[in-house]
Amino acid sequence: MSKRGPLRPKITGFQHPFPPSAGTFKRSNMLKKYIMAPGPTPIPAEVLAEASFPIIHHRTPQFQAIFKAANDGLQLFFRTKNQVMTFASVGTGAMESAIANLTSPGEKILVASSGHFGNRWAEIAKAYSVQAELYESEWGYAIDVEEVRKRLKASPDVKIVFTTLNETSTGVLNDIQTLTKIVHEAGAIIVVDAISGLGAAPFETDAWGVDVVLSGSQKGFMIPPGLAFVAINQAGIEKNKVAKNPRFYFSYEKALKKLTEEKMPDTPWTPAISLIIQLKKALELIHQEGMEAVWKRHAALAKATRAGVEALGLKLFAPTAPSPALTSVITVDGVDSGLINKTFRDTYGISIAGGQGKQKGKIFRLGHLGYADGSDIILEIARLEMVLHKVGKKVVLGSGVKAVEEILLAENL
Amino acid sequence: MSKRGPLRPKITGFQHPFPPSAGTFKRSNMLKKYIMAPGPTPIPAEVLAEASFPIIHHRTPQFQAIFKAANDGLQLFFRTKNQVMTFASVGTGAMESAIANLTSPGEKILVASSGHFGNRWAEIAKAYSVQAELYESEWGYAIDVEEVRKRLKASPDVKIVFTTLNETSTGVLNDIQTLTKIVHEAGAIIVVDAISGLGAAPFETDAWGVDVVLSGSQKGFMIPPGLAFVAINQAGIEKNKVAKNPRFYFSYEKALKKLTEEKMPDTPWTPAISLIIQLKKALELIHQEGMEAVWKRHAALAKATRAGVEALGLKLFAPTAPSPALTSVITVDGVDSGLINKTFRDTYGISIAGGQGKQKGKIFRLGHLGYADGSDIILEIARLEMVLHKVGKKVVLGSGVKAVEEILLAENL
């Protein structure tokens, strides 16, 4: 030791960006953190790194080239040749944009909902003085397409239907292809909240003729929250022209003008530059894999998760129309699902999701959305076995993982 | 060289994240890039790095602690004990939020504008069926506070005034302290777009009694675009309660409820997690420096910039109420200011800003906002000398820099 003191200085006031949580367990505080929720989803290291480059100005050829590439990638992701608008917002802002841009005060609309997020359409409609007829399926079940047909027949004045691709609160996937057909037969257009479903479930905006499709960045796009996207076809644009509700920041007219009027696409307001740079990178990774491969991977991961859950004697909450983005599971008898969540998080560093709305405490939700592969499912189910053990449910350790591995071997994942 | 080929593989298909621009000049393509615009502004490396950590879930104690710290830092930044709401949006969304949350259809409001961004208040009001009386000062000059007093006297039915702290399009700083006094004397409340001015100009939300103040992240906050902030006092909350225009995503009721109803502040929708983590870090740096020191630094940098510009024989566009965030300069006779901009960018890698609206082609704008110090001004003015030389204006190289150095020595910067 020199006279100046120890060579290795004592570190004081060091703040870890992710401080260990205030759990009551005793273990090493080296706790690896995982996100296994249906959003925000994990972000590839290459995409994280993009945000660490110095910011660039948005009115430069450099950024314009990045935005153009991101835009092209979005169209491939949405499977559309139509414009896809990008807003600095999260998904709820995109939902509001659809009500504000596509409806008028006093207008009657149909909301076809399968849960908490589907119902949000009706809440937003109310704020905009739009009369929403709310059809809500039993939670855990998909929207009954025949019920939608019946309701549209009974309300010929409804010219627009709002619905959900993947109902994140229940883990249900709705049949948008059939719904679109039924809505079009009734002379209406369809607006689909595909926030958590796009990139997980096969979705063909143009081939199915879906009029308006919206999504958010922290789901299948593998980037942080803060961007929302809206794809719109000509029928949607026509409805926009006659819709009288107020809009400015989310104005489709302004956004479409900036996307199309110049040689390079642009935005009316300053874009969320760093997130768009990350988006471009993430879309490159996604399209290198290929959309069909992405969909197949999600289907296989969902299948493996369900097999693991059922092998442990647990019941699926949405057995008939399960989502490829997340698996919702009914909690163990007598155990609040919040405790399962908390044990996952505090003991094993894994963020899963709990129940929402009327399912709070009753279900927990395992995500397998975005940047997820077979190894994530092995880990998720193995830790589930240990969590169940801790909350007092008898399980054969390894039995869930065995079921997962069998599916992964069969699916080559 | 081994049989396998050269040890150093040829890099093919390499994409640089910031490709050199398509300028026509011949020089090395090693071009360092600088942002010297009034937004987006440069981001400290420590803040950039925060975005490269794995994402964390927003419904966790870890994120809640970060959001709480960011919130506390925002209140210090706004100099208020009132709530400051955070939205995933850029500044225009925050402006729209104020119209949607604080006015009713048919209501008469006064817009006191000093340029392009001030006029935006009237555009948004129109979209929301609000009758905006627009008072616009001559561009390059501040709002005449006596004119505001006169107009409020003539329109006693106006209960809310919308204005701008720092008019980014002209480089003018308005006297918000006096305006607030006048507006309050008339029995109205004041809403201030402080998007580009907060953190540059001294601003005392509580001491001056400013009712509603909004800002955006890519300016004085030293983080990327994508967050908008709104501080509101009790008078603002009362106006919000009676305001009938529609809002949902930007609802102040919902945002305030989530900020205050639980032990830890929260947001109604998924927040822009990565940007909030960066915000917390940036606010730590800012408060280590101290708000008074930040304001003093901006005043000195602005003074040095003006001295440099004038020493080169150029005329300031806003000589009577110059902004501490940016300096707007009248272009050289016969030279479109766009060429000055383009030369800065393509030849020297520096993004400055051009003229907007009716000043397009006539002025250019030099930023000194956020993460800027004396070295930035030396560079900015030195490169300006070289740009002027290139566009054919006779200048004594070094004479602008001399004037800058004199100020910096006097100001200890």
Provide a descriptive summary of the structure in words.
2 copies of one chain form a homodimer. Chain A has 14 helices and 14 strands. In chain A, 41% of the residues lie in helices and 14% in strands. Chain A has helices spanning 45-50, 61-78, 91-102, 116-127, 145-154, 176-185, 205-208, 234-242, 252-260, 273-289, 291-311, 337-348, 374-390, 399-411, and strands at 34-35, 84-88, 108-113, 131-136, 160-164, 166-167, 172-173, 189-193, 212-216, 227-232, 326-330, 350-351, 353-354, 363-367. The mean pLDDT of chain A is 94. The first copy, chain A, has 413 residues and is of the alpha/beta class. At the A-B interface, helix 1, helix 2, helix 3, helix 4 and helix 10 of A face helix 1, helix 2, helix 3, helix 4 and helix 10 of B.
Order of helices and strands of chain A: EHHEHEHEHEEEHEHEEHHHHEHEEEHH
Q: Which whole number gives the mean pLDDT of chain A?
A: 94
SS elements, strand count of chain A: 14
Strand order of the largest sheet of chain A: 2-10-9-8-5-3-4
How many strands, which pairing sense, and closed or not: the largest β-sheet of chain A? Answer: 7 strands, mixed
Total helix count of chain A?
14
Percent helix of chain A, as a range, is: 40-55%
Q: What gyration radius of chain A follows from the Cα positions, in whole Å? A: 23 Å
If interface size is counted as residues with C-beta under 8 Å from the partner's C-beta, which chains form the largest one?
A-B, 66 and 66 residues
The N- and C-terminal alpha carbons of chain A lie at a distance of 54 Å
